[in-house]
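User: quick one, fold this
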Amino acid sequence: MKAYDNFFLPVDDLEEAKNYFSNVLGLKLKFDFSDKGMAAFNVGDEEPAIILKEKNKFPDAKPTIWFVVDNVNDEYERLHSNGVNFISKPFQIGTGNAVEFEDLFGNRLGMTDYC
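Assistant:
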């Protein structure tokens, strides 16, 4: 794992959450895909963002940290052989491939490769 990618947080009301992150916390909107149930906010000049996921579109959403890897499929195979509990097989996203898993304590993590 090379770097942090993004931090995902589930929210009950995306509009209310966008208002809070923007007007209360003062974070800058990175992208707004409200029609898909997501909005992202930059923290300073960092590339990783906080991505809000609306629970009515993502009912199984949990706070999640994603990491950047060279190749999601290779890392999936490596970690799967080490006994990692994956939520799904790798899937395509708009910027490459991704996969999510849970650690021994139920914390959700993920990987993306930008390929």
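User: anything notable?
Assistant: The mean pLDDT is 96.
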